[in-house]
Amino acid sequence: MKVKVIVTLKNGVLDPQGKAIQQTLNGMSFQNVSEVRQGKYFDIEVNESDESKAKTQVEDMCKKLLANLVIEDFKIL
Amino acid sequence: MKSSVIIFPGSNCDRDMDVALKKFGFKNQMVWHNDADIPKSDLIVLPGGFSYGDYLRCGSIAGKSKIIKSVIDFANSGGLVLGICNGFQILTETGLLPGILQQNKYLNFICKNVFVKIKNKENKYFKNIKKEILELHIAHNEGNYFCSKDELKSIEDNNQIAVTYCDQKGDDNEENNPNGALKNIAGIFNKDKNILGMMPHPERMIDPFLSGEDGSLFFENLIGSL
Predict the structure, then answer these.
(1) Interface pTM, i.e. ipTM
(2) Interfacial B residues in 126-165 facing A (CB < 8 Å)
(3) Ranges of each domain in chain A
(4) Each residue's pLDDT tens digit, B140-186
(5) Alpha carbons B124 and B218: distance in angstroms, whole number
(6) Could you tell me which CATH number the domain at B2-224 has?
């Protein structure tokens, strides 16, 4: 089955790319954009039919590789 | 003294490091990332570069490569492990050093000489260096050191800050911070001070004709203290 994961920066962690995107959007007349935070999205195909088993495995993958918990949080969709 | 430099796909300072280590008397060997074992060594170096193309996060893939288990075992048994630039990023991704190197604050790749202040000489890396301030080279896009407040307190309490960015006089305030690093941190130790990660490249400062000699002081001290 396919498991989807989103990795985002924790609140309070500086995101200079997000800031640059926000400023560019403001410059493109999207004046009402007050903040952009950039993240990562993963589609993971796991050879496992049991959804909860697959998600448990992906959670382990997130903690060990996909996210760095010093600055990032992850969400399994 | 024997040293080993680990080569990852995308390492590009491995040969400079090899030249520097040999110049100051190390018997150096190059070790491929896909090997399982490291030959007997007094020092292991993770060189600069862009291991695995900086995919996912800088150093994250190298931090899980086959050779890393041997590096971690060596470090945990008290062996000297030095990570320069991408090597520093790899050391944080393995968890051997706390924190992480984020993208530079102003989004620019920085390639220039900087001054760094030695903050702790009670270790083999800086013990007998007479100077307090070294001129070294940096070349990175992700050198912005970050860690949690609790982690920073622990780093400070254990004197783990190795070098900070400063000016020629040694003033390490925010004005002399090239990349936004917390507390101007350019390099840190683990608690036991046998592992050092730093962004500046001492191996690029070993020739008075081409660059400068402050890197020579680093390597001379290192081989002398082993």
Answers:
(1) 0.82
(2) 144, 146-148, 151
(3) 2-76
(4) 999 999 999 999 999 999 999 999 999 999 999 999 999 999 999 99
(5) 10
(6) 3.40.50.880
